[in-house]
Design a protein that fits this description.
Strand content: under 5%
Mean pLDDT: 77
Largest sheet: none
Order of helices and strands: HHHHHHHHH
Radius of gyration: 28 Å
Low-confidence stretches: 1-46
Distance between the termini: 36 Å
Number of strands: 0
Structural class: mainly alpha
Number of helices: 9
Helix content: over 70%
Oligomer: single chain
């Protein structure tokens, strides 16, 4: 690593010196500054000139799933800490069959809630790390003027971006389901049927939102991602 860096610096030194000497009287232009910065780093000026850096940066800004996934993970962990999740003990025989069925049902809800939180955090962490690494390495390549390497890296990681996107969608779905289960568990001692009325508005909004989200992603798949 060190010898290669030294050899690059040695090869770039004549170019840098000539550019500085030639422009000492009239001042450096933007192209000269780009040459001074990129050549020692291995950048190709012809590639940079033909490459739209603004579009590349905008494309990277579109990989903002990691921020939302991280926020959802934080919210899921807070939800887990504020929701009763330990299994209920079996009621005594004199409590009756109806009470025993209610305890078994609430324990199943607890298991489902813990599973949803576990999947939400796991999927969210995968999506966060994948898109964070993508952004870091892509910006590093662009900053060093390695346009061809940036393009190859971006295209070569397509399957990881796809997996990260589906992990992000799974994170959102698991968080919504966890929220509904949390409402049920936090109101398990209410009168019969009350907690189902409590979750009804949330379920309706979730279903409508799921339909709208699917339509938006379908439009994006047909109009944006099919083009490239």
């Amino acid at each position: 690593m060190v010898p290669s860096l030294v050899s690059k610096a040695v090869r770039a030194a004549p170019t840098v010196s000539a550019a500085m000497m030639g422009k000492s009287s009239g001042g450096l232009t933007a192209a000269d500054i780009a040459q001074l910065v990129l050549l020692p780093r291995g950048g190709n000026l012809d590639e940079v000139a033909a490459f739209d850096m603004a579009l590349a940066k905008t494309r990277l800004e579109g990989l903002g799933y990691s921020t939302v996934a991280a926020l959802l993970m934080n919210a899921a962990l807070r939800l887990f800490s504020s929701t009763p999740s330990n299994p209920l003990p079996a009621p005594p025989a004199e409590a009756g069959a109806e009470r025993a069925r209610a305890v078994r049902f609430n324990n199943r809800l607890r298991i489902a809630f813990a599973l949803c939180i576990s999947l939400c955090v796991s999927l969210g962490s995968y999506s966060t790390i994948v898109y964070a690494l993508m952004t870091i390495y892509c910006k590093t390549a662009l900053g060093k003027g390695l346009v061809a390497e940036y393009v190859n890296f971006f295209e070569g990681t397509h399957r990881f971006r796809t997996a990260g996107f589906f992990s992000f969608v799974g994170t959102v779905f698991m968080f919504k389901l966890s929220w509904v289960l949390s409402l049920l568990l936090n109101h398990e001692e209410d009168e019969a049927g009350v907690r189902w009325w409590i979750i009804l508005p949330a379920v309706v909004v979730m279903l409508v939102g799921a339909v709208h989200n699917a339509e938006i992603m379908s439009l994006a798949r047909g109009l944006i991602f099919q083009v490239h």
